[in-house]
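Repro:
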Amino acid sequence: MASWSTCIYRGWGHSFATRVGLNRTEHAAPPATIVFDGVCLLCNGWVRFLLRHDHCRRYRYAAMQGTAGRALLVQHGLDPEDPLSFLLVDAAGAWTDTDAIVRVLSGLGGPWRVAAVLRLVPRSLRDIGYRVVARNRYRWFGRSTHCMLPTPEQRALFLD
C-alpha cells in the first residue's frame, strides 16, 4: 500500500507534507463511494480490479442490492429496480456512467490518470458504448445468484 503522503500529495512527496505541517486527520479527503451491481459478473470484476489497484484506498463500495447502495441510487435520482448506471459519489458530487468511470480511473493515480483524456470525447458519444454494455451485461458476462463477498481485509471498504 502506498504511503499516506504519496496518496494525498502525489508527486509532492512526504518531505513536503512534513515541512508544511500537514497531518492525516486534518487533510485526508473522505473516501468516495462506488455503487455497483452486486450480482453482475462484469461489475464484480470491475470492483476486484479497483481493489487491486486502489493502493490509497480512496474508494468504498456499495452493492445496489444492499441498503446503502439502494439509498444512494434513490438519493441521486437513479432507479434501483432498473439499474443501468454506475454511480460514484465523492466530495465533489455524484457522477454516473462514463463520467464516473473516467473519474474513478483517474483517481487511481499513476498510469491510470491517462484515462482523463477520455473527457475530450463528448459524453453523449462515450455513453452510447456504456449503455450498450450496461443493457447486455448479464447476457454477455453472466450473473451471480448472490453479491460479491469481500475478504476479511476488504470488508471495511464495503458499506453493507
